[in-house]
């Protein structure tokens, strides 16, 4: 039992913190907010050079074999800088699904390119009617003589506009109708019939909705052997939630630091705001919740390879708890900044919005407390 | 980073389980499960302390030369977790965890030789004389006075919230020996034999129906000067050292988890008409469980830091705050889960020696007393408001 960072992990944290501090400032973020791409290709190239894109990938395909703790270290630093590069979509979600479901050939074709920065991925799974139920997929994949025909609609696809390839989930239909299996299809973003409508994402970066109008695809775009991909999807999303939880911790820490500083400087009634006990106690609560969120993000990271129910309980518990902490810290940071907190002139709002986006992604606190409760009743006590 | 135990740690876990299996009697287990106050009564608690002492585990936090087992933080974690899981008695901590470390840190060789073995063996039973009717959170305003008379102090005044004073044969107390420029000055730390003439104890019943705390009166009580720990007037320093021990005990999540499990079991039982089938109850159980997960990880992070000699800092206040709040959430949940049976009051104590048929199933007997008594968790050992002051000052610098 040891929760201290190894020397390598400490170095990773230092280099990530330094990179973010040097490359990301308010001007850069404002520029990105109005950029049609939403992130900087040169920063993406640096991610590749620093080995961060290779970090989570398996070693046999050009990766560094890093685990969820290492990803969390990077993500926390990204949170501090509100980094908007498509790291989760490509290196965490996309690459993990290929590594877990893909054939050796599919892995060889994709992962080394993810590592060197030349291939960006996105995962198109959520559908409006499914809300946050990962098992509900109505997008259909019909077998054709040449391969597959995909039809349906996807929403809230992270960074789909920037992706070279999009992993689309679809319900496989055979000649008897729906098979009950979800398949994952690696689709070129330029495929005819695939229509991407992107929009600015709350808190920075971009997301998109995707329409698939009878998209005809060759046979080999199906990842793996066509067995049901739902367990892999749940696994990948649990991992992504752990990573996003760590990012939220970085965001919350920055908001706490900024707000603390502000309450020391801002004077009303002839004394700093922080001279008031009600303000000090609020900040103490915020500090406590940052700490709880940090514990939960770490716990989720350490459980990503546990048995499915344990992993899912840890991921949902973390998502729910961190989401709740995030809302509190975000809303209180604005409150303690007073009127200025509500304006775009300070960055508090941008950090707050990224936290709200975190809470919404893959389902909010209420959804995940519910999932946790449901899983708890399925769990067999040890 | 690794949450799992290594081979040595697993072997130790087996050893602890073996010890518990051999020494925890059914009677002790039932009595503990049916004790709604913080500590077990001395007959149960001290029986367990004696068993621990025979094994050399009587004082996990003490240095080896005074009888500590020299455990790593991970071993302490395992020990506490296994004890909580098995439901061992809650030994009164005033001796081993509170006055013990102060005597070890600041006592004279004579005091160490006399008191420490008697704490370990359970021969002495201690209570704490800190709070006074006029001095709660503002502890340093205390007024109980010790006036020097030859080789004795003569003590007059009163202490309150004295846990198990009605069982204890000794008290450690903070008393005023002089008036300094600051109210923290002039306080001394003194060890008192409870049989000394002039001491009277008045029981205070708490809202859950338990007699755990008391008010103690001192009327010209003579205590030898040799019973003072450390220097005269430096008692505040020693007392604060002890409070940090009280708050930073650091391993509370395992007990919270067992408490929640008992409530969740009730919720899944026909006794409550399966309260868990209400989505609100099921979700609240998850909310509390997740809060316990977070506290457990924080405790493990602190333990890991301690293992490499890092100072965890003001985090002991966070642990105290969260432990007390989560404990209240568990007991609040319990009160909701038992439904109709929340109306029934069982006034007799101890609950494990009732000589009549109670109005509710035995599994529910402690639920309401624990909820009611549990309001005290955010008050004793420094209120939640004081803990927030400490976090703001020590962690945030405001």
TrEMBL record, chain A:
Q: What residue intervals traverse the membrane?
A: none
Hydrolase found in the keyword field: no
- Asked if Oxidoreductase is a keyword of the record, the answer is yes
Q: Which residues form the Acyl-CoA dehydrogenase/oxidase N-terminal domain?
A: 6-117
UniProt entry keywords in alphabetical sequence: FAD, Flavoprotein, Oxidoreductase
Highest taxon of the lineage: Bacteria
Residues annotated as domain Acyl-CoA dehydrogenase/oxidase C-terminal:
235-364
Residue ranges of every copy of the Acyl-CoA oxidase/dehydrogenase middle domain listed in the record:
122-204
Stated name of the protein: Acyl-CoA dehydrogenase family protein
From TrEMBL, chain B:
Cofactor list: FAD
Q: Which residues form the Acyl-CoA dehydrogenase/oxidase N-terminal domain?
A: 7-123
Give the residue spans that cross the bilayer: none
Domain Acyl-CoA oxidase/dehydrogenase middle stretches? 127-221
Q: Which UniProt keywords apply?
A: FAD, Flavoprotein, Oxidoreductase
Q: Which Gene3D superfamilies match?
A: Acyl-CoA dehydrogenase/oxidase, N-terminal domain, Butyryl-CoA Dehydrogenase, subunit A, domain 2, Butyryl-CoA Dehydrogenase, subunit A, domain 3
Q: Does the keyword rRNA processing apply?
A: no
Question: What is a single Pfam family found in this protein's UniProt entry?
Answer: Acyl-CoA_dh_M
Q: Which domain of life is it from?
A: Bacteria
Presence of the UniProt keyword Oxidoreductase in the record:
yes
> Which positions fall inside the Acyl-CoA dehydrogenase/oxidase C-terminal domain?
233-395
Family per similarity comment: Belongs to the acyl-CoA dehydrogenase family.
Q: What is this protein called?
A: Acyl-CoA dehydrogenase family protein
